[in-house]
Amino acid sequence: MFVANKKTHDIAQYFRRKLSKKQFTQDRSGSRTIELLGACFEADKPAIFGTLNTDYVAKEIAWYDSQSLNINTMQSPPTQWRATASPQGEINSNYGWLMYHADNGSQYAHVLAELRANPDSRRACAIYTRPSMHRDWCAYGKNDFVCTNAVTYYVRDALLHTVVQMRSNDVVYGYKNDRAWQQAVALRLCADLTDVLPGRMIWQVQNLHVYERHFKLI
Description:
Oligomer: single chain
Shape: globular
CATH class: Alpha Beta
Structural class: alpha/beta
CATH superfamily: Thymidylate synthase/dCMP hydroxymethylase domain
CATH topology: Thymidylate Synthase, Chain A
Largest sheet: 7 strands, mixed
Strand content: 15-25%
Helix content: 25-40%
Distance between the termini: 32 Å
């Protein structure tokens, strides 16, 4: 049923090979990166490089659940959030807002209703981004083009499988924190559906990358 036969170990090996061969690209700041285009693998581990910061993950998920579009409502927002926000702290990428809020189409509610009505459905899709993102990413001084495009859920053999489709994903911090969020949502869906258990999580990324500042972790 699954064509994603690669796992996180294989992805780690890819980046190690690229680093050993010094095969880099440069981002807009001039920093070197190692990238993989069209990545598809099973997100079987909580981290590809480094370890999961469970304290931070709990804080980020709590902030997502608040559905706030301002980082100043998060306790001690980290540097990466400050870099994406407007001078007033406004962002686009609160994944809880994108998943739950009516202003983004109540994605979670639609997914849950679809799976309840038809567990075999291929339409249980949560759409995170929007066409106006081409303007919204830089509005009011932001630098926040939503990284997740969509997440689709499949109930097969009483298991809930998750397929995450991303525009861009940093292997070190991005993967760990985003996977933790997607896992939390999947567990909530299982609880609401009552008769399914968590299944596999497939990670599809158009551009999966490691920044030069994290080469030491490879």
